[in-house]
Amino acid sequence: MNRSNCIVAQSGGPTVAINSSLAGVISGIANSTEYNICYGAVNGILGILNEDYLNLSEIFSDEESIEKLKTTPAMYLGSCRHKLPDYKDDDSPYVFIFHQFEKLNIKAFFYIGGNDSMDTVLKLSDYASKIQSDIRIIGIPKTIDNDLCMTDHTPGFGSAAKYVASSLLEIAHDTFIYAVKSVTIVEIMGRDAGWLTAAAALARNNYNTAPHFIYLPEVDFDPVKFISDIKEALSKTNNVIVAVSEGIHDASGAYVTSSEASNDQFGHQQLSGAGKALEFLVKEHIGVKVRSVEINVLQRCAAHLASLTDITESFEQGNKGVELASSGITGSMVCIKRTSNAPYTIEYSYSPISEIANEAKSIPREWINDDGNDIKPELIEYLRPLIQGEVNVSYKNGIPDYMDVSHLRKC
């Protein structure tokens, strides 16, 4: 039987689990009766435009290498933030891409990424439909922001949430040792959705009530109310810890940052400084010891603290993508449907990419308290299952032993 080949690429920001999804695709193709070679495009869609490929079927020909890939953080294939033009304005990159597909006998393309990556999936799917191509194009979700629509949650989010909650608990331990009034502000990624910041609440236990406040982009930020919140909390406890999303904004929609922000290729503001801006507010209006902590990229690739639930589900979603393509599905993204919270159970499905690309899923307002400075139990119930389980990471010379990614450092 003359089987066709597949190509897979990764795009956007890194996560702990995106390589597990890649492993799922590679494994799914290896066990497929329809597909033969699994190629990997280096640096996302740019890998196809630059004809830069790896033969993943050769590189990951045994179970041991697949397992190591599953627990390696970030992106084995590298990434990009390249926005394709509308093919109606300029179809030249599309003509080149589909010529590459023909050249390599590609009949399925899998793109692992977040919202901007799903924009690429949508555009390629629309072009394929226009030229009546039989190539199946499948999006496999990934983002620590957890803001993709039509799916219960996204690969990478659970592990990042576990890291955030663990970090907040450790920060609390560090803070509580001083019997002086203090405020610690922890800035967490999340431009338009506060899912990851909300996960800070998972740090609370029978002796720790921190973070004492959680500020999310879903609610307009009021600096006067913020100062009032902090003063009231300081009247009851020495140490106040605040979790804040990088994308908090005031009632006019202006981001609360300490500096001007530039835009990326997709028009998103590159934010930083929300924590620092709140630090300045506390210094100016309260005058107690205050520091801001920006977790930043640390929350994206902490594979040593990965959620087993996250890694397992990410692998299965890669597998599901191959299954969908094999059954003739195209122009769609793999999705998760939660069927129960306790016990936690899910089902894998798919949704048309047109219902997902360029949309964003925010936290329901009813899951945030009336004051807009904390979350409700319903959100805790949603979050907690996603951080369960620990991953067995291999160590060498005392540090994690990950896949060699030196192929990404070439000039």
List the helices and strands and how they pair.
Elements: E1 4-10, H1 18-30, E2 35-41, H2 45-49, E3 53-55, H3 56-59, H4 63-70, H5 92-103, E4 106-113, H6 115-130, E5 136-141, H7 157-176, E6 182-188, H8 195-198, E7 213-215, H9 223-234, E8 239-245, E9 262-263, E10 269-270, H10 274-285, E11 289-294, H11 308-326, E12 332-341, E13 344-352, H12 377-383, E14 395-396, E15 399-400
Parallel strand pairs: 1-2, 1-4, 4-5, 5-12, 6-8, 6-11, 7-8
Antiparallel strand pairs: 2-3, 9-10, 12-13, 14-15
Helix pairs in contact: 1-4, 1-11
Helix and strand composition category: alpha/beta
Q: Which bin fits the share of residues in helices?
A: 25-40%
Q: Based on the structure, what is the oligomeric state of the protein chains? A: single chain
- Biggest sheet, strands in spatial order? 3-2-1-4-5-12-13
Radius of gyration: 22 Å
Strand percentage, roughly? 15-25%
N-to-C series of helices and strands: EHEHEHHHEHEHEHEHEEEHEHEEHEE
Contiguous runs where pLDDT drops below 50 for at least 5 residues: 266-271
N-end to C-end Cα span:
40 Å
Report the sheet with the most strands, covering strand number, pairing sense and barrel closure.
7 strands, mixed
What is the count of β-strands?
15
What is the typical, i.e. mean, pLDDT?
A: 93
The number of helical elements comes to: 12
Tell me, briefly, the overall form: elongated
